[in-house]
């Protein structure tokens, strides 16, 4: 999910649209139908009954909501390798944006509004979008993965977004030497989707645990190991010169594209 304004970026906006990125106005009245249709199509494709399997909707409601067959294709149910199942990964940021000084100030106001204790390393998550997404994808969704990322070189009281800005990374060559990723899995059946208050409390507790993980990380330099089920993978991340060149070409091409539009 991305802000709708990003859709207007020359070239990049076209590319993101072509790859079916979901653009949001961040106003539920405007986003509802678009979000429902996108999620329902993902779900239908995963069950082998969507447009990627040459199927058509069962009906379209008066408000524009498209409805697909609610069954599961037999080949998908039997997990046949040649089935028309199209699995998906849906990435969502319940906080809505990066943690910076400005966004933290807004989060503090929101915390007071909902009568919640704010976090030190995170913004308060928004409940509505995540809960709605999980409910809509429930027929084809098994689990939710919570990903917590820690960046080396960031002090306990600073913000990673300002410490490693795009300018610093691409123009000054300043980047985190180590990026630690802590992943936890929650089975969907154990998440209280049906009760809005219970879900909000569950999500808040997940974020509270994430905040504690990050506090430990910025003190000790690593995430704590919780159980025998925890595995650690260490590897190097190398960027080739051609990849740097490609990244540098994008703003140049965008600039030339804008000049061409202005000259037309």
From TrEMBL:
Residues 171-228 form the Acyltransferase C-terminal domain. One of its GO terms (molecular function) is acyltransferase activity. The chain crosses the membrane at residues 244-263. The keyword Transmembrane applies. InterPro entries: Acyltransf_C (IPR032098). Keywords: Acyltransferase, Membrane, Transferase, Transmembrane, Transmembrane helix. This is Acyltransferase C-terminal domain-containing protein.
